[in-house]
Amino acid sequence: MQTAYTVLILLMLVSVSRLVGRMIPLPLPLVQICAGALLAWPTLGLHVALDPELFLFLFLPPLLFSDGWRMPKRDLWRLRGPILTLAVGLVLFTVVGAGYFIHWLLPSIPLPVAFALAAVLSPTDAVAVSAISQNRLPTPLMHMLQGEALMNDASGLVTFKFALAAAVTGVFSLANASLTFVLVAVGGLAVGVALSWLVGRLRSWMIARGWDDPATHVVFMLLLPFAAYVLAERLGASGILSAVAAGMMQSWLDLLPRQTSTRLLNRSVWSLLEFAFNGLIFLLLGLQLPDIIKAVVSHEASLWPTLFFRCLDVVAIFLVLLVLRFVWVQSIWRLSGLLRRWRGKGEMAQVPTARSCWLLTVGGVRGAVTLAGVLSVPMLMGGAPFPERDLLIFIAAGVILLSLIAACIALPLLLRGIEKSPDDKRRSEVRDAWRKTAEAAIHALEAEEANPQDAAQAALAAELKARIMSEYRHQLEVFNDSAEAQALAFQMDLLERRMRLKALRAQRLELYSLSRHHQIGDDVLREVLAELDLSEANLGQVK
């Protein structure tokens, strides 16, 4: 029962921290870390022992699957060059540069272990950056950070596992490691895509036979990232890349017919799961902080001097990571400009400035994946305690905290005076999509040939067809290219939505009254209330 109580307390804290985060000007991850640290204070003394392998298996697959699902694929492909240089090139650059620096700064950490630590410090967290910047980052930079976070989760953790294996076995060959890296990566991607495709075929087969219960299909989606991870690991491939590939593949397969209710439920469930898991990870970091600090200074005679010097080590490592990232971003952008001029393509459409370089540099916030990875370091190596495991966790936790604090301070300053320009291209695509779909609906209704049995049915069918077509013609007016027509149509649309919202709320109040007076049963209440809620959700945000 103690475990159940602990889980319930943590989930409650995740929700409360979200409310507290709205009242104080701090990013949610920092609030959750502080809440966890307060909960682990000796007066409260909540202690959570973590199994590293279980922690890695429980948290990483669904988070990576969700990132793959949400990532805009077209933007990912359009920015593939910069994203790949950040997600692969920068990871290797960081592993080598920061790895040698960590080994030089802390000789007690063996070089392969230092490489492993540098690798696990490479993945970034675009969700934390978005929360800190409040979506004010320029769209291309935000997409680059999102794509980098998606890809370097995989590349950083795969490199981390290779470095960890080299530390445990004491054997490392660059040629063999490079070949194995490619095979493991390609194998992981193939397993994720294949398994996701098979699940999609299974769902199509079920839907064709009328087995389209939304809860059943959502359970399949919840199990898919874990299945992809386990299967790939069993086959010797990368479970991390498998989970990412499964999520990216599933975002295409999510467009199955007769699955509207499933999609609505699926989005809600995954939003809840992502929020809860991200919050739990940062809460667990806060809960571990007292034990981490105690373990780091336990072998030293003096507490505060040792802790002070360890904190200086963390600051030095963080500054080196920052410098390496800035040097890489600047160098790649300059090299890209030289290559474009050499190939006769002229200057880049958007010339990078010093501010954009610093935004990309400071935007490399470390988060949940770094913590999950470092906590997966084994307790033992060859029967002996893993060298400096507590120090590794302390450094990783310190870098996460410093990167969050630095982003909280620097991003608002760098974004001062920058107004995020409206995405005119996206708006145009939205208008075109609504206009063309409305035209297709009108054409389909015009081509509909009713076959009524009598004149009364023919008149009724004609009236219904005219009513439905008028709604689609109203959509065409809303998305008319004329500014005056759009303004009038939007004004009418807003007024109509307000009226519909007022009517829906009156329906809901009457429904509650019927239930209170026992004129309808609970099953009828749930069914009608679900329809009213869906209708209100379809109205969108009404000001």
TrEMBL record:
Query: What residue stretches are annotated with the Cation/H+ exchanger transmembrane domain?
Result: 13-416
Pfam families the UniProt entry points to: Na_H_Exchanger
Q: Please give the Gene3D superfamilies that the UniProt record associates with this protein.
A: 1.20.1530.20
Q: Specify the protein's topology with respect to the membrane.
A: Multi-pass membrane protein
Residue stretches spanning the membrane: 83-106, 112-133, 154-175, 181-202, 214-232, 268-287, 307-336, 357-379, 391-415
Q: Which InterPro entries match?
A: Cation/H_exchanger_CPA1, Cation/H_exchanger_CPA1_bac, Cation/H_exchanger_TM, Na+/solute_symporter_sf
Subcellular localization, as worded in the UniProt entry: Cell inner membrane; Cell membrane
This protein's source sits in the domain of life called Bacteria
Sorted UniProt keywords:
Antiport, Cell inner membrane, Cell membrane, Ion transport, Membrane, Sodium, Sodium transport, Transmembrane, Transmembrane helix, Transport
Write out the similarity annotation: Belongs to the monovalent cation:proton antiporter 1 (CPA1) transporter (TC 2.A.36) family.
Q: What is this protein called?
A: Na+/H+ antiporter
Organism for this UniProt entry: Pseudomonas violetae
Q: Organism classification, top ranks?
A: Bacteria, Pseudomonadati, Pseudomonadota, Gammaproteobacteria, Pseudomonadales
